Amino acid sequence: MRAEMIKGHLDGLLLAVLASTGPLHGYSIIEELSSRSGGSFKLPEGTIYPALHRLEREGLLTSRWSQAAARRRRVYELTSRGRRALGRERQAWSAFAGAAESIWRGAVCPPAA
Amino acid sequence: MRAEMIKGHLDGLLLAVLASTGPLHGYSIIEELSSRSGGSFKLPEGTIYPALHRLEREGLLTSRWSQAAARRRRVYELTSRGRRALGRERQAWSAFAGAAESIWRGAVCPPAA
DNA sequence: CTTGACACCTAGCGTTCCGAGGCCTAGGAT
DNA sequence: ATCCTAGGCCTCGGAACGCTAGGTGTCAAG
């Protein structure tokens, strides 16, 4: 799977995974994305952490340092604005995926090497 | 539909549309992408032309100036390498779309505003 | 003779993701 | 004691990509 394909889709996927699981810290978001995608999404930390910071800056997520765990963890959670953004992202994904799918449907493809 | 979503997917879509229709010139590729996507993909010329040049440089497309039409048109066509690349792109799209879909499946989304 | 569709092109900008590196703790192996 | 691995956070700089904005030019219609 070409790596740059994720561009422009990351925010939605992060919101989606948090909506599925409830609050999570960054490291486990990475693992969750990987497992839920069947191993297709193995996103590096340099991708995830800045994205989480951006989403928090935009008010779609809140974070707190977890006091429960021995190790320090920053736990992220959807805000209500984040939940609304999730709906928009979901719809944008549907539109995009549907459009792309209908382009692909017309094409006769050779079996991939 | 967020615009940056197309990033990383354009090459495949261009190859796919050319595989569906046969040889086309740039301007009509734009129209074809728009109509086949139900109006979702309205890609500007500044996106399409550089991409076509890149794909030609990579040997996935060939072009010739059409002598038939009154207006000058550069007509693009898939090469055999392009056809093979199409298969790979198609597979990459399936993997990506499937992975993203399974992330989204888990999320409970509010109705988009 | 001006507008709008058709048709091509490119330089530069902004965004985005990623690679590489750094920092730290805990636990197991050597 | 020392190393290694896994867990956990962070950031800087680069590369890639698509888009904006601008340009050239033809042709038909008003």
Strand order, sheet with most strands of chain A? 1-3-2
**Pattern of helices and strands of chain A:** HEHHEEH
Number of helices of chain A: 4
In whole angstroms, the N-to-C terminal distance of chain A is: 14 Å
Q: List the uncertain runs of chain A.
A: none
Mean pLDDT of chain A: 94
Q: Could you tell me the radius of gyration of chain A in angstroms?
A: 16 Å
In this structure, how is the largest beta sheet of chain A organized?
A: 3 strands, antiparallel
Question: Which structural category fits the helices and strands of chain A?
Answer: alpha+beta
Approximate strand percentage of chain A: 5-15%
The greatest inter-chain interface is formed by: A-B, 50 and 50 residues
Number of strands of chain A: 3
Proportion of residues in helical segments of chain A:
55-70%
Q: What is the 3D shape of chain A?
A: globular
Oligomeric state of shown chains: homodimer
